[in-house]
User: Fold this.
Amino acid sequence: MTDTVKKQKNYVGYEYKEITAEDGMIPLLLDGYENFGWEVNESLPDRKAEVRRGGSSKTVIRLKRDRRIVNKAELTRLQRNFEACVAEIQTLEKRKTSAAAICALVLGILGTAFMAGSTFAVTAQTPHIVLSIVLAVPGFSGWILPYFVYRRIQEKETKKITPLIEAKYDEIYEICEKGNKLSAV
Assistant:
């Protein structure tokens, strides 16, 4: 009989985490979670599953980390701060376009109301052509102007919000740096 030598592996208990994120945030999240001791779980067959909601593509990321990691409580606290900063960045990104979209929609609806009035004026029992023309001018303006209003408000909001987003990224980098130092111990 031949002797076979079995190498014994040390048992490692893992904790697992799944994150659903927009495709644009995936590199930031992967880099960030790595600093808190997480690693991408490559043993799963499909680590990238797409979820379609509202036209944006989202990806499910599966992570794992050793349960007996040193400084786990502090790393978890830093990780929560990291997640809060990422959520604030996503909220700020949406704020860039939300006010512009609301203004453009209100203008478009007002333009449609004027066009409806114009249509009713011209199709009345006795057509009111002059009233129809008077109502059609702001109606057409309400259909044309929303694009330009949207662009202008979006540019203003972007200029105002970009420094806030950059400050959040700086905060994320500081948090990740602290987490990296703790997880390396």
About this structure: The radius of gyration is 28 Å. The helical segments are 26-34, 72-122, 129-184. The CA atoms of residues 96 and 157 lie 5 Å apart. The first helix runs from residue 26 to 34.
